[in-house]
Amino acid sequence: MICSILLLLSLTSCVSGRLVVNVTQTSYQAEENQNITLEWTWTSSDTSLKLFSISCRLLAELRPLVLFDLREGVEVPETQDQQFAGRVQFNKDVLREGRLRLHVSRLRINDSGLYVCEVIINHSGNSRSCRLTVTAAARDRPEPETPNTPSQGTDPPAGSGPQPESRGRIGLYCGLGLTAAALFALCFCYFLRKKKDFCFRGGFDEVTGHQVK
Ligand SMILES: *[C@@H]1O[C@H](CO)[C@@H](O)[C@H](O)[C@H]1NC(C)=O
Ligand SMILES: *[C@@H]1O[C@H](CO)[C@@H](O)[C@H](O)[C@H]1NC(C)=O
Ligand SMILES: *[C@@H]1O[C@H](CO)[C@@H](O)[C@H](O)[C@H]1NC(C)=O
Ligand SMILES: *[C@@H]1O[C@H](CO)[C@@H](O)[C@H](O)[C@H]1NC(C)=O
């Protein structure tokens, strides 16, 4: 881990830091087998892909794993780690606009970690990282319930988080409301009973079924 960070720092210091690289999100959350899109952005006046070199790694526990490697505008699939084989797609069209979108499919729990991309354009480069946390898929939830998000993968499943909590809160409020109503009714009845002896014995006589009074 420390070695990989040092390696990265030394790599970054080899090129000048003029280029400002940013991430659209510093952390992502997803469930196992879901897809996600990790995104890096930068501003550069150079738009010729031949000047672009990008290297993205997952800083895993044991060693950094190469996720994506682009040299002078050409993807180098040979350097990609087996763990990501066939699971990473990138959008070449948006590269020129200063946007790297890496679509990682069928996420695994061990894809979790810090993802660092170093972007070098015309000898000027920089790197940024974001964190991905992949959790085990919830077993008690049926599959079709997964909400169809408008932008697939870009958003963490934020909608699935607060729902059970708010449901619980609604239940609590209902319970409190009902209790309050019941208390109010009791007080009201007590008041009426004192006044007219009506409420607790009911409007009807229980035995005869005839109206009292
Ligand atoms: C990076 O991007 C975020 C969100 O898009 C933005 O709020 C932030 O100001 C950017 N930082 C830099 C240094 O450009
Ligand atoms: C995940 O990505 C794979 C490959 O890109 C695709 O075939 C699949 O339909 C995607 N699944 C979802 C839920 O978007
Ligand atoms: C990550 O998990 C997958 C199964 O989910 C396994 O095949 C793979 O070997 C694991 N990779 C590492 C580096 O532990
Ligand atoms: C690369 O950058 C240098 C200055 O930093 C500039 O003079 C040159 O035109 C750039 N090359 C291209 C192909 O844009």
Q: Can you list the strand order of the major beta sheet? A: 2-10-9-4-5-6
The whole-number mean of residue pLDDT values reads 74
| Spans of at least 5 consecutive residues with low confidence | 5-14, 149-164, 185-192, 194-208
Q: What is the number of helices? A: 2
> What is the share of helical residues?
10-25%
Write down how many β-strands occur, each being a DSSP E stretch of 2 or more residues.
Answer: 10
Shape from CA axes? globular
Biggest sheet, in brief?
6 strands, mixed
As a whole number of angstroms, the C-alpha radius of gyration is 30 Å
Distance between the ends: 87 Å
- Class from secondary-structure proportions: alpha+beta
Q: Key features?
A:
single chain, 213 residues, alpha+beta, four-stranded antiparallel β-sheet, binds 2-acetamido-2-deoxy-beta-D-glucopyranose
Notes on the protein architecture:
With 213 residues, this protein is α+β, with helices and mostly antiparallel strands. Helix content is 23%, strand content 30%. The protein has helices at 2-14, 162-196; strands at 21-23, 27-31, 36-42, 52-59, 64-71, 74-75, 88-90, 99-104, 113-121, 124-135. It has a six-stranded mixed beta sheet, covered by helices on one side. Strands 1-3-8-7 form a four-stranded antiparallel beta sheet, with no helix packed on it. Strand 5 and strand 6 (74-75) form a beta hairpin. 19% of the residues are buried. It binds 2-acetamido-2-deoxy-beta-D-glucopyranose (4 copies). One 2-acetamido-2-deoxy-beta-D-glucopyranose (NAG) binds at residues 20, 22, 24. The site of one 2-acetamido-2-deoxy-beta-D-glucopyranose has 4 residues, from loops.
